[in-house]
Amino acid sequence: MQVGNIATLGGTPVRASPVGPRGARCAMLPCTTEGSPAIVKHQVSINEFVLELSVAGPVLFGGRCRDCGNHTFPVLSGCPRCTGTDIERVPLGARGSLWGWTVQGFPPKDPPYLGSNDPQTFAPFGVGYVELPEVIVEARLTEAEPAKLAQGMPMALTVEPLFEDDAGREVVTFAFEPAA
Q1: What is this structure's pTM?
Q2: What is the largest CA-CA distance in the chain?
Q3: 3-state DSSP call for residue 47?
Q4: pLDDT for 58-77, tens place per residue?
């Protein structure tokens, strides 16, 4: 629900974060009515089974085998370790360390890529493996400058905008950003 410059999510006032140099990094933040007007853009997850948005921050989900405890990302119908089929959907850690990375320097093929693939407006982005406590996840990175990335550096879960849907909502995907 949106009232003026303030929106609510589950009854809690929220606002979009400030726009960064290559677009908003779009985390939902508690809203105040003091200071400059809030920029509100309703956000939706590209895939709610994998990524849920909340006022507390994004939550990434994977699978855990109830037979052997192995974690996967995304959730799979069977366990690659023990071949069990008793898999539960579980939240994954929001912090991890960078394991390896590269930079996507040209627009990916459409489909399956759902972001802007216009060479005139495309902005390169990092892609990497982030080791979470449970499993290593392949993910988009907010940093695209290789010199600013290092193996083992701490990373934190965030969201990145992909496109605006027909209803005017900002569709976001999960990403990881360098953390202090």
Answers
A1: 0.74
A2: 56
A3: coil
A4: 999 999 999 999 999 999 99
